[in-house]
Design a protein that fits this description.
- By secondary structure, the protein is an alpha+beta fold.
- The protein has 12 helices and 16 strands.
- The N and C termini lie far apart (about 45 Å).
- InterPro entries: Acyl_CoA_acyltransferase, GNAT_dom, ITPase-like_fam, Maf-like.
- It is an enzyme of class 3 (hydrolase).
- GO terms for molecular function: acyltransferase activity, transferring groups other than amino-acyl groups; nucleoside triphosphate diphosphatase activity.
């Protein structure tokens, strides 16, 4: 069977819509109006596969300025930026009777190739958990659970960072030792080419060791030592396998009443953490460790966050937030960039420390190391 992959045209709209409706449930499928808009605004990144004159699959996505797809990108094709940094994938669709023939793989490879040729920094997409292994075969790295609620489904952010761009002088390979899409998004503000590689360490064992070995001093100092140690050990795991790379590790904890609040173990734990913080001020500590050859820069940043007093409205909002599953991968059971922002009465310090990555400090630390070596990224 001969398969031809080509750029789509507006004349393909009816066939594209039929394929979309076959491949996705109604809540997730793009509307005909949305598909028409995409065909008109970014035909260069809307590719179709034809088998003997019949359209059997397609891949499409806007070019965007960040490595994470937002729900707004799906609904507003005007957010497409022809000069953007990242090629997104909104959908990779192949009719059921034509699957397992390599058509989806060829479509995705063609889009990746076009994005590289256009000088993009990478390719990004959202997928469901069961599809993660498939996309990892193409070099995409799982950056963790997405903030997207598209189609009321659970999605994961996957990103492929291109390591080479047209004619640019390359510095050291830079690796972010974290799956957090928030850290990846923030790092992309200052570093355009980096890889994401999660580090697997026993965080609980590290916490127990640091607390047991703590000498006289404030609990906050011990907590800072903890996040620095966690960040350093995460970076070290990846650095041992990538000796020439500049590796960035990071970790975040919340400190309340001389207790460390990490990621909740279940929904009840998440709810209890948020209830305990109501009406109080807590500290968010983010540690960062940068390893490059024999060089190391490790530090911790602290920001104080105050929550409003607990009331019936907050109780309802917390219950809904916990039920959404969003708190489960976050220290202190909340992300300030999410619904939890409604409970914050005040912030003292760097906002991005709360998000989980004090990017201004990270930027200065990275470029100080690169400048010392005479290499800029």
């Amino acid at each position: 069977m001969q398969i031809e992959i080509r750029k789509a045209t507006l004349q393909d709209l009816a066939a594209v819509k039929r394929i979309e409706d076959t491949c996705f449930p109604e809540a997730e499928a793009a509307t005909e109006a949305s598909l028409s808009e995409r065909l008109q605004l970014f035909p260069e990144s809307f590719l179709v596969a034809e088998a003997e004159g019949e359209l059997v699959g397609f891949v499409n996505g806007a070019v965007i300025d960040e490595p994470i797809i937002r729900d707004a990108h799906y609904h507003d094709a005007a957010l497409h930026n022809p000069a953007g940094a990242y090629q997104s994938v909104f959908g990779l669709d192949v009719l059921p009777e034509y699957r397992k023939r390599g058509i989806a793989a060829n479509l995705l490879k063609a889009l990746i190739g076009a994005a590289r040729q256009a000088g993009r920094q990478g390719l990004t997409l959202c997928c469901k958990e069961e599809k993660i292994p498939y996309y990892e075969k193409f070099g995409l790295a799982n950056s963790g659970r997405s903030d997207s609620t598209h189609g009321n489904a659970v999605w994961y952010d996957l990103i492929l960072h291109f390591e080479e761009r047209r004619g640019e002088q390359m510095g050291p390979k830079i690796i972010l030792a974290s799956q957090s899409p928030r850290r990846s998004e923030l790092l992309s503000l200052c570093i355009k080419d980096f890889a994401v590689q999660a580090a697997d360490i026993d965080e609980k064992a590290v916490e127990e060791r640091v607390l047991a070995e703590a000498e006289n001093g404030s609990f906050l100092d011990t907590a800072k030592e903890l996040v620095e140690t966690l960040a350093r050990e995460k970076a070290a795991v990846i650095h041992r396998e990538n000796k020439e790379a500049l590796v960035i590790g990071s970790d975040t904890v919340v400190v309340l009443d001389e207790k460390i609040l990490g990621k909740p173990i279940d929904e009840a734990d998440a709810g209890a953490m948020l209830r305990a913080m109501a009406g109080k001020t807590h500290s968010v500590l983010t540690g960062v460790s940068i390893l490059w050859g024999e060089k190391e820069t490790t530090f911790a940043s602290e920001t104080k966050v105050s929550f409003f007093e607990w009331d019936d409205r907050m109780a309802e909002e917390v219950q809904a937030y916990v039920a959404s599953g969003k708190p489960m991968d976050k220290a202190g059971a909340y992300g300030i960039q999410e619904e939890a922002a409604l409970w914050v009465s005040g912030v003292e310090g760097d906002y991005n420390t709360i998000v989980g990555f004090p990017i201004a400090l990270v930027d200065r630390a990275i470029h100080r190391l690169l400048a010392e070596a005479g290499t800029e990224k």
